[in-house]
Amino acid sequence: MRKQIAAANWKMNLTLSEAGTLLDELLKTPYSLKENQEAIFAVPAPYIPLTIEKLSGNNNFFVAAQNCHQKTSGAYTGEVSATMFASMGVKHIVIGHSERREYFMESDALLAEKVDAVLTIGSTPIFCCGEPLAIREAGAQNDFVAEQLKSSLFHLSAEQLLNVVIAYEPIWAIGTGKTASSEQAQEIHAFIRTVLAAKYGQAIADQISILYGGSVKAANAVELFSQKDVDGGLVGGASLIATEFTAIIKALK
Ligand code: PEP
Q1: What local confidence, expressed as pLDDT, does residue 178 receive?
Q2: What is the CB neighbour count within 10 angstroms for residue 46?
Q3: Is 89 left (phi over 0), alpha (psi -120 to 50) or beta?
Q4: What is the pLDDT of residue 4?
Q5: Residue 175's pLDDT band (boundaries 50, 70, 90)?
Q6: Total domain count, the chain
Q7: If 216 and its partner were Cys, which of 42, 77, 188, 233 is the partner (CB 3.0–4.6 Å)?
Q8: Please, where are the H alpha helices in 56-140?
Q9: How far is the CA of 24 from the centre of ligand 1 (A)?
């Protein structure tokens, strides 16, 4: 069953006590997520234990990591592996966020290794893709995104792909206040599904959740999520405001 997901990406924000307050605020609202709906919180790694504790008892609420190292263990000072996250109860890891690609030079090939590391231990990569503004202005976004998918995901078997969540995040819409219109989002999400279908078949492609990210907020979530191929959102700025993210979770279809 294709999942509908509201995923928060806190990035490198909040102190530990602010994180606790935000979660307390958010969890004041009663949620009754349907079987196919999930709320996922990609929090800074040190806040994972607190977040797990706060979310416990909330059905279909999960904590995620924002990145991991591609190796299982070893002499990689400062890094955290997917295996370590899994040992803490974290089953979702964001891979290939555009900020990781840009500031930490993460290549498609490296991201393929990270995807493998996450899948190997039975966790779920939330794999990010999306084009910069110049590519969108040149009308080349489809080819650009197709290449990202092919380079980092197409070595996977169909069975492995079923455990991947894709987040399409146009870079020009991340943290800029500019959101892709619901038509633009639907168009490229449908295209992504076509690319997956060409490689893995329509039945597999239809089961993959494709999230939209880029200035999602309470005011635009319902319209974005109502699109046929938009299965929820990966949310940065608005996920730091309890009322906003509550409304975004409630906007899931
Ligand atoms: C993100 O960080 O993935 C993101 C989409 O950020 P924002 O919602 O702030 O644009």
Answers
A1: 82
A2: 9
A3: left
A4: 98
A5: confident
A6: 1
A7: 233
A8: 82-87, 98-103, 108-120, 133-137
A9: 22
Atom number in ligand 1 closest to CA 97? 3
Range of the domain at 32: 4-250
Q: What is the pLDDT of residues 30-78, one digit of tens each?
A: 998 999 999 999 999 999 999 999 999 999 999 999 999 999 999 999 9
3-state helix, strand, coil in the chain (%, to 5): 45, 15, 40
Which amino acid, 162? L
The whole-angstrom separation of Cα 31 and Cα 34 is 9
Residue position matching structure tokens 């980092």: 152
Residue 223's CB is within 10 A of a number of other CB atoms, namely 14
**Residue 28 near residue 55 (C-beta atoms within 8 A):** no
Taking the model in full, what pTM does it have? 0.97
**201 CA from centroid of ligand 1 (Å):** 30
- Residue among 11, 12, 66, 169 whose CB has most ligand 1 atoms within 8 A, to mutate: 169
Active-site positions read 97, 169
Give, for ligand 1, the residue of 43, 66, 215 to mutate: max count of ligand atoms closer than 8 Å to Cβ.
215
How many beta carbons lie within 10 A of that of residue 228, not counting itself? 10
Confidence class for position 226, pLDDT limits 50, 70, 90: very high
Query: Does pLDDT of 1 surpass 90?
Result: no
Beta strands in the chain (DSSP E): 4-9, 37-42, 61-65, 92-95, 124-129, 165-168, 210-213, 232-235
Q: What average pLDDT is seen over the chain?
A: 97
